[in-house]
Amino acid sequence: MTLSGNGNGNNRDFSNDRSSGGEGPNALERAWVRVRAHLRSEYGDAAYKNWLRSVTLLRGAGDKVVLAVPNKFWRDWIAMHYGDRLVGLWKAENLGFNGVEILVHATEAKDTRLRPEPLEPAPFKVEEERLLPLPPQVNGEEPRLGDVQNLCTPLDPRLTFETFVIGKPNEFAHAAALRVAEADEIPFNPLFLYGGVGLGKTHLMHAIAWRLRMRNPARRVMFLSSETFMHLFVKAVRYKDTHAFKEQFRSVDVLMIDDVQFFGEKSATQEELFHTFNALVDHRRQVIISADKPPVDLQGIEERLKSRLGSGVVAQLNPTNYELRLSILQAKAEQKGVSIPSKVTEFLAHKITSNIRELEGAMTRLFAHATLLNSREISIDMAQEVLQDLLRANDRHVTIDDIQKRVCEHYNIKMADLLSPRRARAVARPRQVAMYLAKQLTTRSLPEIGRKFGGRDHTTIMHGVRKIEELRGGDPSLNEDIEILTRSLTR
Ligand code: ADP
Ligand code: MG
Q1: Could you tell me which residues come within 8 angstroms of residue 135 by beta carbon, excluding any fewer than 6 positions away?
Q2: For residue 197, which ligand has an atom nearest its CA?
Q3: Is 2-104 a domain of CATH 3.30.300.180?
Q4: Is the pLDDT of residue 158 over 60?
Q5: CATH 3.40.50.300 domain span(s) along the chain
Q6: Of 176, 353, 390, 462, which has the fewest CB atoms closer than 10 Å, so is most exposed?
Q7: What is the pTM of this model?
Q8: What is the topology classification, in CATH, of domain 400-490?
Q9: What's the confidence (pLDDT) of residue 11?
């Protein structure tokens, strides 16, 4: 993407002037320091920290300065909000620049002289970036969101659709999220995203909010954690202001609440959420919810709220599989501009199976280590040494072998029979139980499980899993078997 000044750029190549004219490339770097200082003082520390600090200088090329940013979204944001000023400041440096080109790390900027970004040990945090101010209403009425606006969760610029890696385990949730974010008409209501910790729920919620905001800044998007929702409600009750509370919530176009499992047992807040929710849905407003379980399994939440929450599209972020973990590791390394041997990414994708947050943590730690130790090359040995604790914690996960062994003991059958093609009920049912447990308790994919069960096809595994799911409802003794086995395997 190129941003140009209005002046008539003569296309002289200034790069020689700058390097042979005694100022050298340092002149460019010194100018960049000044430009950044200007931007910081003009836009403030928050904007600087959130957006501008991650812009890196690559080089001068002709009459353009070439900069790089972490992703496409970043590029568009910088261009939209700071583009003119960037061009102006560079022109004012009198180095002959008349425009700015912004590249995206690791994709457009592959062959540049990009060095790995310096590592920031603390996770990136957006402190003051709030939802965009609401535009005045067309009919001259002031927007009614008032203070609630300031309580919206700040959006993290790194959590966008562009940085979300898609694989089998999350493709449906991703597609549903994208659909809601891009639709002009409400496609389904609500969207309910659920999944275990660290599998990308919050990432998708931010991505939706960003996309909605980009597509139509006038849309009133309210994105809250469930704690904030409860906090606001309790405050409203205390100050006898529930009417205003209701009004505020009901005036939004899109309501997003992250982690509703924390609503459990707070019945007054639940009641309020239920009414707010009904009012919004009735008025054709989009509601997007996330939780760690599907609606039916939410504890302490009233039946009617559960059924309302499940009445749109319910999409799961499934535990990761090897392929997704590998793609995520590759994507993160690329984003950081760090090269990491494929042996090492494969090793990590095999070993760190718990969730994506831990996988990211492992990468960050490895990179930091490599940088601190003067670009020591990242190797499997190094990973084993630096990530000892993480690797050990992930080792404790249940394996398919454990499951098969335990199921054989429990039903008193032979392993050879469990793995054989025999269809006699006495071995077929325990086999299906083992398949079911392998799906529930490990992160293996159906084909992987199939291979462990004497080379069965993944559809056979799926059939087995479904069968047990079906039977569990009406068969207390089967249910008990499964609970005992689960407990003994996960203890
Ligand atoms: P959850 O809210 O489900 O606990 P998060 O959305 O906070 O999980 O995800 C944990 C971390 O993993 C975040 O840093 C997020 O950016 C990253 N992450 C999760 N899913 C993906 C994905 N599909 N691609 C890239 N990064 C991901
Ligand atoms: Mg979360």
Answers
A1: 143, 217, 218
A2: 1
A3: yes
A4: yes
A5: 148-317
A6: 462
A7: 0.59
A8: Chromosomal Replication Initiator Protein Dnaa; Chain: A; (1.10.1750)
A9: 39
Please spell the DSSP secondary structure of 143-188, one letter per residue: PS-GGGGGGSPPPPTT-SSTTPPP-GGGHHHHHHHHHHHH-SS--S
pLDDT at residue 119 tops 50 = no
Average pLDDT of span 239-267: 81
Q: Ligand 2 mean position to 314 CA, how many Å?
A: 17
CATH architecture of 322-393: Orthogonal Bundle (1.10)
Give the ligand whose atoms come closest to the C-alpha of residue 165: 1
Ligand 1 near 362 CB (within 6 A): no
Instruction: Report how far residue 126's alpha carbon sits from residue 130's, in angstroms, rounded to the nearest whole number.
Output: 9
Question: Which protein residues have a CB closer than 5 Å to ligand 2 (ion)?
Answer: 201-202
C-alpha distances in Å from residue 337, one per residue of 107, 125, 269: 10, 21, 46
Q: Tell me: the pLDDT tens digits for 68-90?
A: 887 776 777 788 778 888 999 99
Average pLDDT over residues 446-466: 94
Q: Which CATH architecture has domain 148-317?
A: 3-Layer(aba) Sandwich (3.40)
Q: Is the pLDDT of residue 204 over 80?
A: yes
Q: For ligand 1, is residue 201 a contact (CB within 6 Å)?
A: yes
Name the pLDDT band for 179 (thresholds 50, 70, 90): very high
